[in-house]
Design goal:
Layout (H helix, E strand, L loop, with lengths): L11 H13 L4 H13 L22 E8 L2 E8 L2 H14 L4 H6 L4 H4 L2 H4 L2 H22 L1
Antiparallel strand pairs: 1-2
């Protein structure tokens, strides 16, 4: 059930740089939203058995489930949403944070959000949901570090 980063970026920063480059190819936000939706469709299947309250990310308007596995040396995340755009946001988060050491997860700020202009183009409820997902990922990293 581990979610491998989509490409073989060696660090969270390299993943963020690659995301910024990809989004730079699109000339407008209609295309960028479509790309986000397409990324969300490529998420690994999420077992229905894991769609329980314990794995639910609170603070999201959409339904979001996120599960962490691994330890401080490597944390993997698997997540899904009932919203197409939120699933795309999850795909980006997993690409930056999944498969990384807990310390790197905690030390990595999501700079790609500003770099691609996402912060300006998300509704307040989606921004809050993105922040809640990021908090959940970082909380799991803190737990892994003990």
């Amino acid at each position: 059930m581990s979610a491998q980063p989509e490409t073989a970026e060696t660090s969270a920063q390299a993943a963020q740089d690659a995301i910024a480059e990809e989004f730079a190819f699109f000339s407008d936000w209609t295309e960028r939203y479509q790309y986000l939706i397409d990324l969300g469709r490529k998420l690994s299947p999420f077992p229905d058995a894991l769609k329980i309250d314990e794995h639910k990310v609170h603070g999201c308007q959409s339904q979001v489930w996120l599960v962490a596995s691994g330890d401080a040396r490597r944390l993997d995340f698997c997540a899904i949403s009932d919203s197409a755009i939120v699933s795309g946001l999850i795909a980006l988060l997993l690409r930056v944070y999944s498969g990384r050491p807990a310390r790197e997860i905690l030390d990595t700020e999501p700079n790609y959000i500003a770099a691609i202009g996402l912060a300006k183009h998300l509704s307040p409820t989606r921004s809050n949901g993105l922040a809640a997902m990021l908090q959940t990922i970082k909380a799991q990293a803190r737990i892994a570090l003990g």
